[in-house]
């Protein structure tokens, strides 16, 4: 079965430093990436994420907090103030 995206459960992208995850929302992502030590690339998966830079800081923080706390992930929430500092 072909994956559309890399898994987020336990992913270093989801539970690690929130800055790379925020930058994916700001700028999007295409091409191969490494998630939890495993390279993810076509044709096995299609790691394509369009940018969502038009989300407010609050909405971006909510999305990132959801990703960081779902699928058995258990990390600190992201504050909208942190997003505004990253959005430079």
Would you give an account of this structure?
With 88 residues, this protein is mainly alpha-helical. The protein has helices at 12-15, 18-27, 57-69, 80-86, and strands at residues 33-35, 38-40. The chain has a single domain, classed as Cytochrome Bc1 Complex, Chain D, domain 2, CATH 1.10.760.10. The protein has four helices and two strands; from the N terminus they run ααββαα. A two-stranded antiparallel sheet has the order 1-2. The radius of gyration is 13 Å and the shape is globular. The model has no long low-confidence stretch (mean pLDDT 87).
Q: Summarize this, please?
A:
By secondary structure, this protein is mainly α.
Question: What would the average pLDDT be, to the nearest integer?
Answer: 87
Helices, by number, come to 4
What's the structural domain tally? 1
What's the name of the CATH homologous superfamily? Cytochrome c-like domain
Q: Note poorly predicted spans.
A: none
CATH architecture annotation name: Orthogonal Bundle
What keyword list fits this structure?
88 residues; mainly alpha; two-stranded antiparallel ribbon
Fold blueprint:
Elements lengths: L11 H4 L2 H10 L5 E3 L2 E3 L16 H13 L10 H7 L2
Antiparallel strand pairs: 1-2
